[in-house]
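Reposting from the mailing list since nobody answered there.

I have sequence plus structure tokens for a pair of proteins and want to know whether others read the tokens the same way I do. The first protein:
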Amino acid sequence: MMLTHTDCGARRGEVTTAHGAFQTPAFMPVGTAGAVKALTCEDLESCGAEIILGNTYHLYLRPGHETVERLGGLAKFNGWNKPTLTDSGGFQVMSLSDKVKITDDGVEFASIIDGSLHQFTPERAIEIQRSLGADIIMSFDQCPPADCERSFAEEAVERTARWAERGKERFDRLNEALDTGQALFGIVQGWTDEALRRLSAKQITSLGFPGYAIGGLAVGESKEALNYMTAFTADLLPTDKPRYLMGVGYPEDILMAVSAGVDMFDCVLPTRNARTGLVFTSEGPLVYRNAQYAEDERPLDPNCDCHVCRRYSRAYIRHLYNQKEITAHILTTYHSTYFYQKLMSNVRLAIEDNCFESFRREFLELYLST
């Protein structure tokens, strides 16, 4: 990662991958099965996205990582041809199935498609992600729930460290035979406990990854805990490597994390919520499906210049939603994706101009005013 500017704790930089570079701070739209629902690659490009995320668990089940590899890797398979990141599948295998067996060797789980049994080990997670061909791949980790006992969180930290070491050893051996140009990031766990976070950061950073993720947050803890542990953990990570806060999130949380020195984000919020009747706007979240907008001629966001806001009214989009027209999903997903990418672009400009904190304050005054 090349850092180009800092403004107090906020960082501006660029990450170069085999499929090109992306600017940081960056928000990655989530393409669960290889596509961001309701959007084409052309849509993503016009929104300003430079990197997208794919889910290893879902792509492993369908169409299968071998198929994606035969078809040239994820960026070619889905026509994106720009940087991609895949998660390790660890969160999904432990959260999407009621039949999960966690051991020191790995995780056995039942497919959400047909109930068939599968196993992910740290080595297997690396092999699958290499086949998928993402530019940035993630270590296999154990993410404890927010309401677990401390003893469970302790076990998760130790297991995550052992799995990270095993996964990196497998990755390095595979790279000796064929360097794919991929980068493997480590994941720091530790629940909402300072001592566990400090221990996990020490264990993971000692392995020498080219980038680090903050995992195990935005899983049910309070906003106060999220904010504090994000800043606490970010401060434990190397300053010359990318810092990635996984699964976050709301605009206010992203701005908080940027001020703490985080560089990368992902979340399903903007796209999933758009499809269920809520979009993000400069004036706060808007539940466009509500009856009060039945004759509202205003755009979704009066301060947005995306093509949806330039052309369509809240009333029309609400009508499409109530008629179950797929066009409602397309228009609202586009707007929310554009909103997030525009936010990140403005964040980067504010850091360059040494005015990030004033930008953050002014943004939140309007965003939280409703």
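The second protein, same order (residues first, tokens after):
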Amino acid sequence: MSESVAILGLGTMGSGMAANLLKAGIPLAVYNRTPAKAQALVSTGARFAATPAEAAKSASIIICMLADDTASRAVWTGKDGALSMVRPGTVLIESSTASPAWIAELAGLAAQHGAELLDAPVTGSRVQAASGQLTFLVGGSEAALQAVIPVLKRMSKEIVHLGPTGSGAKMKLINNFLCGVQVASLAEGLAWIERSGLDPRQALSILSAGAPASPLLVAISERMMNHNYAVNFLLKLMAKDMRYAETEAANCDVKLTTAEISLALFQRAIADGYGDQDMASVIEPIRANK
């Protein structure tokens, strides 16, 4: 393939995405604030860039996968930011779970450089990123999307074009809002089961086969039962997504009452030191009756 790609951010998701591009033989530059996280990728053929600008200077496609608006803004527009080296015709892909407001601003900045932005957050977590089984939720022009589909296919099982710029960001926040509410309610439900005298395994088998069932319930309940909080999705990032969701829904005159309640549970777990663990750890303060 003729595309040269840069990936900005090598966290839980970005590292898996980068590894799949390397497997496909795509020329790849990588940037991460902590260089040590790039070592494994460099050993398999990636070029490490010391700054976002250096990563961007020879790339025709630039993918950003970071924690939030603040981190995204820093790598695009900060000192030695990627936008300073973007060439006309470059396609920027913002895959972070970002606010639609920041996506709109970034699209305008991209246009000033003769580039085009796709907002393309993903569904899936660490396992799906590593196995190339993500789903991209894309907002932006059809022409820009068609130009990058060969690259996106190397990281995904599905690419969904939702509409104009910002559509992907909106859909991702709705997705994560519903996930966050389910995780929070599962934490309360499982704590209730554990204290009720019911057999937790038997109870969860009934829930997993019944109306409440979902892939998320099955996966998260297993982690909660085993106290396994190795990160698939950081608890503190789910809290961030719930805050973004509340703001965006309010812009549409919708009050997310369940998000407010769920966010309080996530914030309590963060206060108890679980912010850098998997979101399943939200159950621990509830178990402790704090």
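Reply #1 (J.P.):
I read it the same way you do. The beta strands are 5-8, 28-31, 47-48, 61-64, 91-94, 116-119, 122-123, 134-139, 156-163.
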